[in-house]
Amino acid sequence: MQISVPRLRPGRHVFRFQFSPDEYIEVEAGSALDFRSDVQVVATAHKMGMQLFVTTEAQATVAFECARCLEPFVLPVAATAGALYVPEETFDRAESRTHAIESESERVMYYRQGVVDLGEQVIESLALAAPQKPLCLEDCRGICPSCGQNLNEDACDCRPGEEFGRPFRRLLE
User: What gap in Å lies between CA 127 and CA 120, rounded to an integer?
Assistant: First the structure.
């Protein structure tokens, strides 16, 4: 999922990619996403000199564990991201502190040998778009805190707060 910058003419270009997340194992491992499909990407690049502003729209199917009932399920995840890519040769080490401060508000990335690799940007944007508290159903009932029964599958005979509500009751005796 690379774009060769010197080959591009100035202006707008649209690219379509499909790739396996396994190609970016190091990035995927840091994202903690369990991809169940290839990643589909549409990238729009605007070339200005040797700089390239790229916006990506990515989609993939990801496996999760429900935060309430702990059941596995899959969910489509979509993300949009943008970054300005500049040649690594333009990076001035003396100005690195100033550049770091500027890049917090604008996403500035560096590329080497005339090639922009979008894999890291895409997987990172999918990781940020994934739900922090994934739910298998919007109204998932979770598990019983006393007996562990999945309340989506069947009700249990426990009374609310029966054993769970007073874990230190034996100390009172």
Answer: 11
Sign (positive/negative) of CA torsion 54, 57, 61, 66? Answer: positive
* 130 neighbors 58 (Cβ within 8 angstroms): no
User: Rounded distance, CA 144 to CA 161, Å?
Assistant: 10
The structure tokens listed for 9 are 């003419």
List per-block mean pLDDT (blocks of 10 residues) for the chain, which spans 173 residues.
90 92 64 86 94 94 94 95 88 50 62 89 89 94 86 84 56 63
Q: Which two tokens stand for residue 121?
A: 């940007």
Phi and psi at 127, nearest 5°, equal -65, -40
d(CA 3, CA 15): 9
Taking the model in full, what pTM does it have? 0.75
Q: Do residues 85 and 51 make contact, with C-beta atoms less than 8 angstroms apart?
A: yes
- Sorted by sequence, the CB contacts under 8 Å of residue 10 that are 6+ apart come out as 47, 48, 49
CA 58 to centroid of chain Cα atoms:
10
**Domain limits, the chain:** 2-136, 141-173
